[in-house]
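DM from R.C. (forwarded with permission)

"hey, sorry to bug you on a friday — could you get me a structure for this? deadline for the figure draft is monday and I only need the backbone to look sensible"
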Amino acid sequence: MNFTIFNRMFRASKLDVELYEEVEADKSLLTEAMVVVILSSLASGIGSWAMGFGELFTTTIGELISWYVWAFIVYLIGTKLLPEPQTVADHGELLRTIGYSSAPGVIRILKLILPFDRAIDFLAISWMLAAMIIAVRQALDYESTMRSVGVCILGLLVKIIALTFILLALGFLYNVIGKAV
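My reply, with the result:
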């Protein structure tokens, strides 16, 4: 890992539209975008010092899966359901831009030294949402920021519904297996 990734993370956190255009266009940055997601997740876990190594590991894996699924949902909604005439994108473009939109989340490590856990979490989530809206707008070549907001909100609703069904299914399986043992 070199210092270029930190420069890009800083630019992503500044909501630099040109950075999101660069990341969208550069297919070689997929692994780097994944590292940004991992760093943001680790910062959150480390900031919540009560989290053990196992929880930190599973949370990070969960964040990676969530990032992949979220980018796919946004890709489908943005290109199939709500495209603008000039919209041309692929899943990789959304993986890269949305990955970088998690860069502001690294501020959650400050929870280690500052007593404002909820305020830091609120700031990080709000900042990452603003970055994601820009990332989605750039990746989907939207002229309208409001369309990007709509895609993000609709994507979030789909993700929540999907996760609810998955958790219910896992709970059902746990109860069935638990009773059988």
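R.C.: lifesaver. Residues 155 and 161 are 10 Å apart (CA to CA).
me: no worries. The chain has a mean pLDDT of 90.
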